[in-house]
Design a protein that fits this description.
By secondary structure, the chain is of the alpha/beta class. The chain is built from 5 helices and 9 strands, in the order H-E-H-E-H-E-E-H-E-E-E-E-E-H. The longest helix has 14 residues.
Length: about 190
């Protein structure tokens, strides 16, 4: 279900035909904290060029083995987001699902994610916490839109709201007031 919701939003955000055989063809995606590839692999099968990275070498080994058995065209790497400086500004979609709860230095982690976003790309953060209050601080993100952020095309990794893609958007100044009542559509 999660892959369906994510892929549907990506179709909308990037103007893709959801009925195409490989609707995500041409999109470059990185899944930071990919685990064993439960989201990473299906997105690659929808045509996206996907790199999954994880801090746990064992997770990467399991994901690679499964991708090999299924024939999924996905790449995996044992790495942290901070290790991917060679990939800065190259991803249309930077995903990090159920990872922020485990990060020791959240501001540094978010900064490393934003550096990976290509101009016009998006940052998608998923949290089991069901709220983004713990990451919605004005010092971290200038504007916030529930379910993800879109990089401003002219300023590289800085972030601006995606007003055309989600129904609930708020500036971080009021985000903590809206967190309890707002849920991501992703």
């Amino acid at each position: 279900m999660r892959v369906t919701k994510i892929s549907h939003r990506l179709h909308v955000l990037f103007g893709r035909d959801p009925n195409a055989a490989k609707p995500l063809t041409g999109l470059k995606i990185i899944d930071v904290g990919c685990g064993t590839g439960l989201v990473t692999e299906p997105l690659s099968q929808l045509g996206a060029d996907v790199l999954g990275i994880d801090a746990a070498e064992r997770n990467v080994a399991v994901a690679e083995r499964h991708a090999h058995m299924s024939g999924a065209p996905v790449k995996y790497r044992h790495a942290l987001a901070e290790d991917c400086v060679d990939q800065e500004g190259t991803f249309d979609v930077v995903m990090s699902l159920e990872v922020v709860e485990h990060v020791a230095d959240l501001p540094a982690f978010l900064e490393s994610l934003t550096r990976l976003i290509a101009p016009g790309g998006i940052l998608l953060i998923g949290t089991i916490n069901r709220s983004l209050a713990h990451i919605s601080r004005p010092s971290l993100v200038p504007n916030m839109c529930w379910g993800g952020y879109r990089a401003a095309p002219t300023t590289g990794p800085s972030l601006s709201p995606r007003r055309n893609s989600m129904s609930v958007c708020a500036s971080t100044a009021s985000a903590s007031q809206n967190v309890g009542a707002s849920r991501s559509t992703l």
